[in-house]
Amino acid sequence: MMNVGIGTPSQKFNVLLSTGSADFFVPAFNITTNKPKFFPKKSSTFSSPNPQKYLNFPEIRGEVQGIVGIDTIEFAGLKQPKLEFSMADLIDNQTLADPYDGIMGLGFAKLSKAESKNPVLSAIDNNLLAQKMFTLYLKGGYTTNSKNMQGGQATFGGYDTKNCGQRLGSVKFIGGGLRYQFQIDSVSIQGNVASGGTQAISDSSSGDIIGNRAVIDKFTQQVGARWSDSDGAYIIHCRATPSLTLKLGGVDYTLTKDFLIYRIASNKCGLAVGGMDRTKEGFDWVLGSPFMRKFCHTFDIKNNQLTFSQVKNL
């Protein structure tokens, strides 16, 4: 999550960074919540687009709707005037219960329902960053003997030398500049190849590895995981040893139990995977936070590629 300010004087929000969406919303002044809310009348720099836009955001989990505003937005010491954002006056209860105030999508403008650039890509386009890139690091893996780790760091305009070590490889973005989408060479489960070439997207706001339904079904069967409707997750023995390997750009990236198994209760663990069908855009894998916990992600906008590096001190 990241602190951002909107308006003059600045109204502060803690937002989730999402590489799987492209819109930016915070709670509107007229929504019922204890979270911070944006009050347009308290900002001397606020304005509305003409014509006004009222949108829903299908890329964001749950139900979120809101009206678009224009104001000064500040993050990481950068202040940019006249950027669009959304004031959400309808947010589902699950999203309201999440620890963040809003979501800042980091995806390309083509994906935006508001048809606008998010503050990070706007800063890149306006040459406000040292380099046209940003790096995301998520703290550690899931350790089944302790609390699930939270937190991380976003580095805008460069590489995170504090938390990220050796660069392992890169993949080019494909799909016409809509998503952070790339090719998967192969997928292996428990050391055996289960799928040939396919495509994936990166989504920092997803808590799971979502994959081809047939491959995930085979994977969960092999590792002894079973679906639980009441938990909304695959339940697995806490001492199980699942292994999932993705070959990307000719390099193998392997996730093991510390990045796939998380604790639900003292004697219950979940497997951080889910199944999906191939989308019309051609991908059937979504690499969420478990993958980012193992490998730092550098989104190199100038060179149209995603670089993976080893997280330090795992």
From TrEMBL:
Biological-process GO terms, alphabetical: proteolysis
Alphabetized SUPFAM superfamilies for the sequence: Acid proteases
Molecular function GO labels: aspartic-type endopeptidase activity
One cellular-component annotation, GO: lysosome
Pfam families given in the database record: Asp
Regions crossing the membrane: none
Gene3D superfamilies in the record: Acid Proteases
Chain ranges of the Peptidase A1 domain: 1-309
Family membership: Belongs to the peptidase A1 family.
Protein name: Peptidase A1 domain-containing protein
Organism: Meloidogyne incognita
